Amino acid sequence: MSTTNNEPIISSYAKAPTKTIKIGGTTYAYRELGPKGGIPVLFFVHLAATLDNWDPRIIDPIAQNRHVITFDQPGVGGSSGTFPGTLEEAADQAYNFVNALGFDLIDIFSFSMGGMIAQDVVVKHPELVRRLVLTGTGPRGGKDMDKVVGATYYDMVRAALTRSDPKEFLFFNRDVAGKRAGKEFIERLNERTVDHDTPITIKAFQTQLKAIQRFGRSVPSDLSIITQPTLIANGDNDRMVPSALSVDLHRRIANSELIIYPNSGHGGVFQFHEEFALVAVEFLTP
């Protein structure tokens, strides 16, 4: 287990420097903040995302009292290598990353595709994880999970026509509240002004989409193996990973609690970040 050192404590994700660690022939890019020592919280990011795509209004409150680590999967952002063809392989890569950092017990915070990878990590290595947060995600083999590909490309076209960030369409409803939440979310992501990550390549993005599609069409995992306390959250109108799949996760994971935010979409936890950050901090408190 990693221990504390004399590095200054960084409390703002916008100011967390990008670090690297080499595992075999692959270099992993990551950032960390918050007080070191104890059990870290590892963040698993969404489709097409890099280190720059985490909402500081969720990460910063958690990092007030916890060691937070975000990372790029191989082939994404500042990490070398290639993104694998399956999310199960991505889970293996994440496990290797945790091992290389020297941790034998972690908490996980995940969103969307990251939640799919996180599930595979817990199923294969249940002893590694103490507490699990699954947001905007669903189970392997979940109904209509594979439709994320069509929804993604459709909203990317809509965003291009209005010169908007695709996440405004993919994550938020297109009503007044949703449009406002989407623009505020993008503004928060832009609070970091230096040391930006490298955007995902088209090839890696397409590989991720195919991997999600395979995940959605695969035989369901036995999630009864997940006995850790689990927090599941989503909006009530998730068009990317249908909200019903969050309910399905809650049904499959015995020791879980479910929060569904009203009048919100895939990014419901970002639209309701003030409320959700409080819940997440309390849930992840050792």
UniProtKB/TrEMBL annotation:
Recorded GO MF terms: catalytic activity
Highest taxon, organism lineage: Bacteria
Domain AB hydrolase-1: 41-269
Protein name (record): Pimeloyl-ACP methyl ester carboxylesterase
